[in-house]
Amino acid sequence: MLELKTYRTQAHNDWCPGCGDFGIVNAIQMTLLEMQLEPHRVAVFSGIGCSGKTPHFINAYGFHTLHGRSLPIATGAKLANPALTVIAVGGDGDGLGIGAGHFVNTGRRNLDFTYVLYDNQVYGLTKGQASPTLPKGLKTKSMPAPAIVEGLNPIAMALASGYTFVARSYALDVRHLKQTLRQAIEHKGSAFVDVLQTCPTYNDINTKEWYAGEDKPVKQPRLYKMEEGGYNGIVSDATNHEESTKKKIDALVKSFEWGDKIPIGVFYKLNTLTFEEQLAIRMPAMKETPFVEQDIYGRDVTPLFEELT
Ligand SMILES: Cc1ncc(C[n+]2csc(CCOP(=O)(O)OP(=O)(O)O)c2C)c(N)n1
Ligand code: SF4
Ligand SMILES: [Mg+2]
What we know:
Distance between the termini: 51 Å
Radius of gyration: 20 Å
Low-confidence stretches: none
Structural class: alpha/beta
Largest sheet: 8 strands, mixed
Oligomer: single chain
Strand order of the largest sheet: 2-1-3-4-8-7-10-9
Shape: globular
Bound molecules: thiamine diphosphate, iron/sulfur cluster, magnesium ion
């Protein structure tokens, strides 16, 4: 029987007390349990950063890859074994700094997997430098001076790149995060989830208290659920170009709300052919016998080596 502990490992965890990463890992584990996905059917890929340690803590297949490279490696795994539930995770520096090219091109492909961005606005592991999501002019605890480059908007980047499921959640709202992750994993196509994550050690601006709106004259949470206000980013007819364009523009406009009010929930969702489905049309053998089921032991690879040397 699957239980929450099925998805836990014994690996030592050195995240700082109160780190938002704990909430994200809990939500991933709870989602896998809720979906009854057995550990051997799941693979978690990460890059480098505090967030990069995630695969060590989730009992499933996992690969702690290179800085910014979780997405290409997750892509390879999904293509080799399309039956796997693939989850790529990583920090805002990992995914939108060094890995930005992969982020864009993964969205264009629309493979059926989920990418979870741990968005704490800093490079946590290397002691709090500004990450690509820190707005210009802000200075967190360990920075000597305010950022002089513009911060980027991950939701807008994902929409422009072609991700067919684009959502945002919050690491300390595990219930909402779990619901969002479930929708992302169930979506057939590339799903992107921007998770606002507190880093109590280095980000002294976007703190738990800040998200709760405790600094406002009248305390009011900054995060609000878009769908409760009637927002619906789901494209009902993928063949209707006018509808999908309008929904994407609406999502783009929403994504620039930041400050006193910050939207969470599903910005955009479009059901269309995945990369794997398109590949199977062109190369039916890929679907009939995916790479993972091919017998590589009886193969003579000498001609391949001869060609490469
Ligand atoms: C090629 C390479 N360049 C730089 C580094 C140093 N480095 C390690 S983690 C990191 C940034 C981590 O920030 P982020 O991706 O936001 O993850 P977080 O620690 O905040 O979860 C950097 C620059 C590295 N490990 N490899
Ligand atoms: S440095 Fe920040 S992101 Fe890294 S473990 Fe500590 S609190 Fe978490
Ligand atoms: Mg970070």
